[in-house]
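Quick question, first post here. What does this chain look like in 3D?
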Amino acid sequence: SSACWPSSSPLGAGPVGAEGGVLVDFIAQAVAVVAGHGGDLRQIDGSGSAYQLVLGFGAPTSTPDDVNAAVGCCLRLLRLAEAHGLVASAGVATGEVFCADLGGHGEYVVVGDSVNHAARLAAHADPTVLLVDDTTARRCSSHFAIAPAGTIPLKGRTDEIAHTVAGLRGDRRAATAPRVAHFTVGRDREL
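> Answer (accepted):
Ran it through. Tokens below.
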């Protein structure tokens, strides 16, 4: 199976005082954005003043639109973080993963190179930038404007070719909008 893994990091200050309220509000809204794009929030990792959201698209069941949904979701999350005054970057990688419901509770554990690649791409991305791997860039280039960004060193592996997602290609706002079965009228600014 193929899965696409966006990862946002860092997301600003730790959950102390007023900054904690901003982070909690951001995460609550981020969960809705991710679900609206057909993804899953797999985990939130935090260390010191940096936080990372690990998202999954296409696992355990994939669709042809998973990559576009993941990239669109990350672009929306970057805008959402900025609106909350948080500094964020993101990375998306696509590839084969191992996915299993190990506890029988419907919560899937997913491991694979693409999970690690997404985290490394996010770590190397400048603030407000979404970096994607070569596979993701090829699969989403008809919907999004993609530009070469050089290579990212990967420990013990061949360097990863990275691409920057500059935004939507042409008039394709729907690619970053949540997957909904109805039209929303008069709320373009919120979408």
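The longest strand covers residues 144-152.
The chain has a mean pLDDT of 77.
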